[in-house]
Structure formats: C-alpha cells, structure tokens
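README, section 4: Worked example with a bound small molecule

Sections 1 through 3 covered apo chains. Here we extend the same pipeline to holo records, where the ligand is supplied as SMILES alongside the sequence. The molecule in this example is zinc ion. Nothing else about the input changes; the structure line simply encodes the ligand pose together with the chain.
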Amino acid sequence: MPSPASDDAFAEVKAKVDLVKVVSEHVRLAKRNRDLWGLCPFHQEDSPSFKVDPQRQSWYCFGCERHGDVFTFVELIEKTDKRGALQLLAERAGVELQKLSPEQRERSDARRRLLLMLKLAAQYYEYVLWSSPAGEPGRRLLVQRQVGEETARRFQLGYAPAGRGFAEYLRAKKRSLADAQAAGLLRRDGADFFAERLVIPIRDERGQTLAFTARAVRQEELRKYINSPETPAYVKGRVIFALDLAREEITRRGHAVLMEGQFDVITAHHFGVTNAVASSGTALTEDQVRLLKRFTDELLLVFDADRAGRSAARKAAVLAAANGMRTRVASVPDGLDPDEFLRGAGPDAAARWDELVARAPSGFEAGLAEDAAQFNPSNPNQMEMVATRIREWIGQFPPSLHEGYAEVAERRTGISRHLLLKAPPQSPVKVGTNGLGARTQGKKTTVSRYLLQLLAVNPIAFERIRTKITPDELDEEDRGMYVRMLETYERAGASGLESELGDYPAEEQDLIRRAWAAPPPNVDDRLAEELAARIRLDRMKVRQSGIIRELSEAERGREAERVARLEAEAGELARAINDLERSR
Ligand SMILES: [Zn+2]
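The generated complex, written as structure tokens:
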C-alpha cells in the first residue's frame, strides 16, 4: 500500500475518481463538443468560461486562468492543501493511504463508529423536535427566540426528550449502546445525556456532526448549556461552529462574522447574516484562526458589550493579527446581545446590520478607543497613564504594525507617536542588574563597545559568540576592531592579544589597555552571549523599520512584486525577532 503522500498515492487516487463527478458537485456543467462548460466557481462571472476536459481529466478557466487536475480543484474549492485534497479524495475513492497498524485501524474504526452514532443522534433529535409531541418544549423555545423552521432545519436543531428515548431507538435499530455512551450521548444507565434540551449539532467545515451543545428549555434550569465531551472526533478548540453553512457567504462578503454564542449565530443566520460563525465553547484559539483564514482575511467580531466581551474581542484581535488576519469590532448599541438586537430590528434587521458593519472600527482602534476614553490631553498625569496603556496595547501586535498603529493613536489622542512606541532598545546602555553600563563615564558606552571591552579582557568568550553574530551587525565604528581581535584570537589564542597589540591602531590599543586596567564589571561568557543577542536584535529591528518604510513606498507605487518580496522579508524578520526575543 502506498505511503501517505507518495506519487503512487496520488496516481492511485487519480485513477479512481472522476474529475467530472467531483466538479459537478459544485458547478452545473453543460456539454459543448467534447468538453463540459460551466460558471467558474473561483471568480464571479455570468457566462461560462470554466471548461472541464473529461478525457484529460483537467480543467481550465478562461476568465481567471486557474487550471489543474482533480487535486488542484479540490484544493481550491475546499480551501485545503495538497495533502488535504489527497485525503478527501482518497476517502471518497476508498483508497487506503497508508498501512495501518492494528491500533491505528482500531482508532480509525472507533472514530467512524462515533461519527455514525452522532449522525444518527442528530437525525433522531430532529425527528423528535418536529414530528413528535415530545418535541413541543423545543418548538416553543424556537418560537420564543424567533427562529423559523427553515433556519432550524439548516442547523439540524433537535430536541432530546426526557427519559431513555434515544436508547430505545438504538435498540430498535439494533445499534450498540456502548458507542452512544462513548459519544457522550447516553448516561451509564441509558438515560439521555441531553434530556429535555434543545440540541444543536456542532459540525466541522464540511458539515459532519462532531458533537452537540444543548440548551435548557426550562427557565429554572441552572446550567443553560451542556456540551458533548471531547472525543477522538471532537476537539473543541479546532471547530468553528456553522462554518459549513457560512463558508460560501464568508468568501462572497470577504469577511466572517465571529460571535460568542451558538444561538447568536443561529439567530443571525435567520435574519440574513449568513456569514456568521462562533468559536464554539472556548475563547478563540490559534487553530480556529487558521481554519478561518482558509476562507477569509477579515473577522468582524461581534461580542457582548460587557467587560468580558470587550476583553475577548481584544484577545481575538491580537491572535488574528499574529496570524495575518484583520479584525473589526462591531458594537451592538444599547448594551444588547447581538441576537436581541436582530430580533428587535425585525424586518429591518439586514439594513440595521449593514449599518453596524459599516461603522465597525478595526480591532486595534476599538481597543484604543477604550484606552483613551475620557482622556483629557491637558492633564499631564493622565497623559502619562494613557500613553502607557496605549503603548502596551500596541506592543501586543506584531512589530510590523507598530508604526502604523502609533500614527493612528497619535491622530486619535494627540499624544506623540514617539511616546507610544516601545523605547527603541539600543545604543546607550541602561544600568542593568548584570552591571551593564555601570561605568559609563564621559562618552556613553554602547552595547557593541561593551562587547569589545569584554572580549579584550576575556577573549575566550569569542568561542560563545563568533557564530552568533557577524561583524556588520556591530556599530560601524566597532567593526574593524572586532574583526582584528577575532583574527588575533583565531591565530594566536587567548593570549594573542598581548603579543599582537602593538600592530593595532593607536586608538584601539588605548581602548584595550583601558579595559585591561579597569575591566568592565562583568565579563563572563554568558553576558557576551546576551550582548551579542541584543546587538543582533537591534540590527534586525532597524532593518525592520527600513522594510516598513520601503513597503509603504512600494504600496503607494503599486509595485506588486516588490510589495510581495518585502512582505515576505518582513514576515521572516518578524519570526526571527520573535524567536530571538523568546530565547533570551
Ligand atoms: Zn475562473
């Protein structure tokens, strides 16, 4: 059997699936001569320029010029990668991708049974909700919340009756109760785990039910929601609720609406906001952000207006930015929950919603407005405090955004942007715990100069740093001396400096002698490493602000290629800086 990603696997899967069939699930195709034509699913068009060649098993769009084979098509349409496409198509073709060990087979088997059980449960609960007298409390709740049947069915909402209804249903179908227990559907005594609750399936982005959340129908119920446990099929931080229903509209509108509660999302869909999703049972996680990023670069955050909601929005904005996504924050007026707002607007809901979206500031600006609320610029104490708060807020975002954000904050508050950026961590050395800079008499000692003094006294430290720093990362006036000392050390070892000192330029001899006579307070190897790291970091940050300036220049000039190159470089640099900062 072929290994997961070998060419064999691709070939085997390709031989077993028909491109025409796969495409037909997404595009209505009509035959013209030998080929099939349809409206391209990858760009907007009114007349078909998307062609499928059944013989070659290839496709081509004359509009957007995208093209490829069945794998490329699935990659694009499912917003996945090559591996993901292989996996999807292999499942469909019944090709096993790798030899499974008995344990793996057992696991994959268990997962399949779990998913089947969840699907059965969803069907059963839905049946009870709409077709059984026992479903009455669920139907009443939906009427109260103004969720119509059509919307409810799209989400496959259901009702779990009191007692052992589902267990009996399984018995009648000769299904295993143990599987249902493993899926968290039944208690040990066979009673329904979700009894007397409205049941909401949590599905993955392809519509597969992975778990349930269930809402109490009775006012006096203490726990409003209860949830399925995590299982091999369900890890809550990885699922986005309603993404299967919202994905198309997310792509069409160019943003996803991220809400806090599943019921908010259901109401939103009912009132036409069909690009709404929720992070489902957790604060937004990085996995969820990455999942969303397959469909859009922008999140519209619609959280509750309370303190918890505002803090969740801030965290989401920062997390999204770290993953290259933009955010905006919509605030629902009058302290209403999003679903109260939509229900209150009734038939005007769509229009009122659009106004809300149009007004939504960026995630950064929303936090800024909070930090600067009631700020009085003529009060110096206040200014200090607000500047600190804003500086911290800016500092949470990736460095490449800092300058732009400081500008925005300056415009908003009148506080100089220089006060809003973290003090550039360079040249004149601050007095630190390791004695750094303690002897800054007269001319200020820079980090790179301190390193030279340290190396003069303790040349062995070259061993620790010569691979970690290059001479051109040092201050310009220190480079020559660093290279000379390094050469001496490599040629003549730790005592070489004494014998070769006479060949050094007078100024450098002077500096070395002074270091010998009065060594800096701390000359150990570890400090040398720390200094080298600081020097590198400073260099990288200087380069970074250079790139940012170049980038805005390139963007103004619409030089797409240069922008792409600079963005890539900035990304790499940001990662390197991040790594270096974390390792210190
Ligand atoms: Zn196209």
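What to look for in the output: The radius of gyration is 31 Å. The pocket of zinc ion is lined by residues 40, 42-43, 50, 61, 63-64, 66 (CB under 6 Å).

Section 5 describes how to batch many such records.
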